[in-house]
Amino acid sequence: NRGAGAAVVTGLTWEHGYNYGYDAGLVLENAIAWGWAFEAEALLVQDVVPWYDSWNDELTAAGIPYTQIGSADLASTNLYQYRMIITASVQGSTFNTRLNSRRTALQDYVLAGGVLIWSGCTQSSHTPYPVPLFGGTNNYDTSTYNDVEDPSHPIMANVDDPIIGSSASHNYFTGLPGYEDLLATSRDTGEATLYV
Q: pTM of the entire structure?
């Protein structure tokens, strides 16, 4: 959480319905309840629909207008015209490379007051992995159980503890700066899988 903006960073597999306690729809529901204003259009950065569910469906169901761009358009897009940006998970190596090249721009967007829902969830072959905002390392390791570390945080409202799924998370983060709010960890590694 930086300045007036916020970055929700995750290695959880939100989009594909494998998580029985937390999915993309609940993320949006909690973000709205948290008080983030969605009167302005959202930006979805996505090259392909990940797995079985999509941010497209969830944004439409929540009544949030959005524009979708592919990763090739990220460098030429004015991020500041959007109140919220979502990066989809499991997009492949080319997407990850393009996302990493815009890391500073995304950090600046958050520092200026934007809301970013950023997914570092990948497949093991999708290298380079997306680099976490504001520092740290993204590591691949699937975990069936993710423990909720801060159930009182608004983004965790109505989230089951533990978060259980067939590979509930694909990635975890290490070497994070000391200023994040840790929300969930991989039971296998004890490392962060969701933070704000």
A: 0.90
